[in-house]
Amino acid sequence: MMDKAYAPARGPELPWAAAEYELLRDQVRRFVEEEIKPCADRWEEQGFVPRPTLRRMGELGFFGIRYPAEYGGAEMDAVASTVFAEELGRSTYGGAADAMLVHTDMASSYVFHDGTKAQRARWMPGIISGEVITAVAITEPDAGSDVKAIRTRAIRDGDSYILDGTKLYITNGVHADLYCVAAKTDASAGSNGITMFLVEKGTPGFSVARELEKQGWRSSDTAELVFDGCRIPADNVLGAEGLGFYSIMRNFQNERLVLAAMAIGTAKAAIDMTLTYVKTRRAFGGSLWDMQTIRQRLAMLSAKVEASREFLYATAWRMAADEDCLREISMLKAICGELVNEVSYACVQFHGAMGVMRESAIERIARDARILSIAGGATEVMLEVVASTS
Questions:
Q1: How many helices (H) and strands (E) would you count in the chain?
Q2: CATH dotted code for 245-388
Q3: 191 exposed, middle or buried (CB, 10 Å; 0-12, 13-18, 19+)?
Q4: May I ask the CATH class of domain 135-242?
Q5: In whole angstroms, what is the distance from residue 224 CA to residue 208 CA?
Q6: Residue 17's pLDDT is what?
Q7: Residues 106-131 pLDDT 10s
Q8: Annotated catalytic residue 59
Q9: Residues with Cβ < 8 Å from 48, sequence gap 6 or more?
Q10: What is the spatial distance between Cα 369 and Cα 336, in angstroms, rounded to a whole number?
Q11: Helix ranges (DSSP H) in 72-199
């Protein structure tokens, strides 16, 4: 049961049976073993996932899981995205997983959901094939989870908009080809004054100011972006002017779902490798597994991961049925982001000195896990959402 996609006895009628989810899980797991793990240490050093790997993922169909067949997609659903994210999390390379999930579920989704027919026709085939990599630029030096506080401006000038401002902590920010950028088109309109735009790499006035160094997620490039008199066509508006805030709020739900799934996959991998370690590590005349405190601690952590995983898939099924899951998604993001940190802390402890060696996978997991309680909405923000909907 631990590695199965979930198909509850009573649930929404969906076009995909459990067999399709299992096939996807097997394909992603094989890709992780054969094409991510052998190379990912090098990606950690260089700070990004190389383009040939991303194109390979496009060839295998991983970048079109949720998108229509007319663009090359598989037309699956939120459950499939959850399977995909969980298996990437199990790779134990959080940076690589993040770079891939930003493209599939956090940035390109703006193009599909808010783009015009012409915008989708132009960009979606390349997005799905891996020829066009995407990033989403919302966060700023003084505006993270508080989207309404962004200061980047977009001023209409004839048949163009001129963008001015700075974006910070942008994943795929260095190497993306297409950026979905939030800017204020009416500073006096509050949330109704935010608009999303498409900005291509190489547009005059748009630059990567600096590549940022992170504690974890080392193999995802993260950047500060600057827009200085960046002129883009009015046709590059995503959706309608003034509706960007609502687009961002909608997209946050899918973003937080896949981050929760990634956290669960990471936690499961950490427990599995720690079980192997404590059963073979000798101390005081026996193995660490012989110590009741360690056995029971790992048992409790396993129980928490399984309970959270059940909640994860139940919520993914509800999302696939187009139900409103704002409260549940916020709970999931809070629970799973904190749980993966609790798990990684204990697993480092049980590895002893090996747990803090850079050669150890558990050390990398612990560094990467810390970001999962922050990225996509910090735990405290998620709990405020839960409280406001209770």
A1: 12, 10
A2: 1.20.140.10
A3: middle
A4: mainly beta
A5: 6
A6: 53
A7: 999 999 999 999 999 999 999 999 99
A8: no
A9: 99, 174, 175, 219, 220, 221
A10: 10
A11: 78-90, 94-101, 108-114, 117-129
Return the bridge partners of 225, or none: 167, 208
pLDDT value of residue 73: 97
Write the pLDDT tens digit of every residue in 169-194: 999 999 999 999 999 999 999 999 99
Question: Residue 330: which residues within 8 A CB-CB, separation 6 or more?
Answer: 256, 377, 382, 383, 385, 386, 389
Query: Would you say 48 and 174 are in contact if contact means Cβ atoms under 8 Å apart?
Result: yes
Q: How far, in Å, are 81, 168, 386 from residue 377 at the CA level?
A: 19, 15, 12
pTM reported for the whole predicted model? 0.93
Tokens of 184: 């204020």
- Domain coordinates in residue numbering, the chain: 18-132, 135-242, 245-388
The sign of the CA dihedral 199, 53, 255, 365 is negative
Where are any strands of DSSP class E within 258-381? 282-283, 286-287
Strand residue runs (E) in the chain = 134-137, 153-157, 160-171, 178-184, 194-200, 206-211, 222-233, 237-238, 282-283, 286-287
Q: Does 135-242 match 245-388 in CATH topology?
A: no
Structure tokens at 214: 């992170």
Give me Rg for the CA atoms of the chain.
21
Share of the chain above pLDDT 90, in %: 88
- Among candidate residues 83, 86, 97, the one with its CA nearest the CA of residue 53: 97
| Catalytic entry in 44, 140, 241, 255 | 255
Q: Could you give the CA distance from residue 335 to residue 58 in angstroms, rounded to a whole number?
A: 31
Class of domain 18-132: mainly alpha
